[in-house]
Structure formats: structure tokens, C-alpha cells
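step=predict obj=DUF881 domain-containing protein n=229
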Amino acid sequence: MFALAGMIFVTSFNTAKGTNLRTDDSLLKLSDLIEQRSQGNAELDRSTSALRKDVDALARRDDGSTEAEDEKLRALEVAAGTEKLSGRAVSVTLNDAPPNAQASPGFPEPQANDLVIHQQDLQAVVNALWQGGARGIQVMDQRLISTSAVRCVGNTLILQGRVYSPPYRVTAVGDPDRLREALTASPAIQNYQLYVKAYGLGWKVDEREAVTLPGYSGTVDLHYAKPVQ
């Protein structure tokens, strides 16, 4: 018994190397790592944006293009979402249900998944706004482009390398009446509205007279597809 106890003490000493084995203070939690990477990606986005502006300025100065070609390029940049876009807009805010949410009369008691925003909810809003003729869409503080993917992991949104928590705001520049009609007509959003009524999920639509969406400033390289033209 003494020999066994001695072996355990020696093993513990060699493993610990002077640290406390019963604490996780030295371990970086996954949530902390995600937040750290998100902040790093945000900083890289800002750096990339600044460099892209310098490159674009040099290209415009030295490319020798005609005025018509420059005008065509500007139109393509607006369509691609890499330039700022201003105009009337509709803003949609989605939020998780309150922590103490209870089912409204006539509805079953909620499960955990009934009380949080899911990826399909955000996708439904974005798709409806495009369907309603949106000229540009911003989710949280990021402009969407053709390769943007709205994805959720757990109860957090991962968008273009950055992580966000609810409430989620989606802003679309376009005709407010058409945008509202598209939101109302969407079957997926109609289903979401049932959960708003039953369990108190957050849903708010605001019309805004003057909004400026930032241009997308991240990478535009394609990894899994090739441009047709």
C-alpha cells in the first residue's frame, strides 16, 4: 500500500510539474477561442479593406480605361456589393425568447429549440428580402454578397469568419412596401410567427428612410466554383 501510494504521488508530481491539476484556469474555453478568432478576423477584415482601397485607387489611376469602361465597372461593383449603397430600407430584428418564457394558452410547453433563433429563421428573412427586390442586404454589421453563407452553430451566428449573438438585425435597402410584402408572404416566416406568438421569440420590423450599407471588404476569391464570365 505504501509503495502504491508513493507511485501515485510521484506520477502526480511528474504530471503536474508544479501546476494545480484540479483547475482549468490554464485551459482556453472553446467560447473564448471562438471570440478570440472572431476579433482577429474582424481586425484582418479592416486591414484587408484598407489595402483594397489603396489597390483600387492605384488601379483606377493606372489602368488606362475609358470613361464608359469605368462606368461599367462601377455598376458591377454596386451589383457585387463591394460599394456602399444608400436608400430607404427595412430592418428586421430577431431575438431569442426570454429566459423565463412560457407557452401561450393552447400551445404545448416549449422545448429548448423552440426558444432560440435558428439558421433557417435568418435564412428565411434574407431570402424573403431578396425576393422583395432588395438592392443590398446587411446582416449585423456585414454586407452580404453572392458567396455569403448565413450559418448558425448552437445559438450563435457565424458570418464570414466572425461570430455574433442575438439579437440579430438584418437590414435591406429597397422599396419598403415590397420588402414588407415579401416578409409577410414568406411561408417560412409565417411559421416563425407561430413561435413568436406561442413562446415570445423576438420579431420587429422597422422602416428607415435613409440608410447606408457598407461595401463588402473581405476576400472575393472563389474556392469551390469558377465564374462563368
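step=describe
The two ends are 78 Å apart (CA to CA).
step=end
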